[in-house]
């Protein structure tokens, strides 16, 4: 059994999709804990109701990013994670923290990376006039929203789309994309060589149309 620790900051719908998939598909893994930097993160309620251990490490109580990341790391490591899953965890991570989980920390970002790293990705895709938008699952490296790509999901941008309608349509795909990618990791189907992921999908081969 592998241990998965999931970090959230808010709604936690991707975390919920992962928890449901792990149960329904009987992954050889357990969700060891759901941890948030915010006590009011809605997703904590879902996790607690499922009997999953939860913890809060409030970033506001730490004077520096380094101090926060050190406290967070101590809590995460208490659950002996094989994989750390960032699911809407809205904190910039320090290089030391990222290095500690190198090769065992995944993130989902709501854009077709390398397009639109950072915040407000749906607004950016609309402003750019792109016909397609998407989400990317990647291994976490020190540079924000970079790191070897595991897989991407794409959605069409429709006439009349707002950031909200686009985000909602994409979220449905995120809930398929992320559990599938995490399952590949759990099943040892992903290898990283020279910054590229080799596995069931190789998104670096697919250019944005
Ligand atoms: C998701 O759309 C995820 O891709 C995005 O935040 C949302 C969290 O929703 N992540 C980022 O923007 C990370 N830079 P959720 O809490 O319902 O899973």
How would the blueprint of this fold be written?
Layout: E1 2-8, H1 13-24, E2 29-36, H2 43-49, E3 54-56, H3 65-77, E4 83-86, H4 95-100, E5 105-109, H5 121-127, E6 132-139, E7 149-156, H6 163-186, E8 191-193, E9 196-198
Parallel strand pairs: 1-2, 1-4, 2-3, 4-5
Antiparallel strand pairs: 5-6, 6-7, 8-9
Glycinamide ribonucleotide binds next to helix 1, strand 5 and helix 6.
What can you tell me about this protein's structure?
The protein is globular. Strands 3-2-1-4-5-6-7 form a seven-stranded mixed sheet, with helices on one face. Strands 8-9 form a two-stranded antiparallel ribbon. It has 209 residues and is an alpha/beta fold. The chain is 33% helix and 23% strand. InterPro entries: Formyl_transf_N, Formyl_transf_N_sf, GART, GART_AS. This is Phosphoribosylglycinamide formyltransferase.
Residue fraction in strands: 15-25%
Helix content: 25-40%
Structural class by sheet pairing and helices = alpha/beta
- Hetero ligands: glycinamide ribonucleotide
Query: Count of helices?
Result: 6
Task: Give the terminus-to-terminus CA distance.
Answer: 40 Å
* Lateral strand order in the biggest sheet: 3-2-1-4-5-6-7
Query: What global shape is seen?
Result: globular
Number of strands: 9
Low-confidence stretches: 205-209
In angstroms, what is the radius of gyration?
16 Å
Biggest sheet architecture? 7 strands, mixed
Q: What is the mean predicted local confidence, pLDDT?
A: 95
Enzyme class: transferase
Family: Belongs to the GART family.
Pfam families: Formyl_trans_N
Site (Raises pKa of active site His): 145
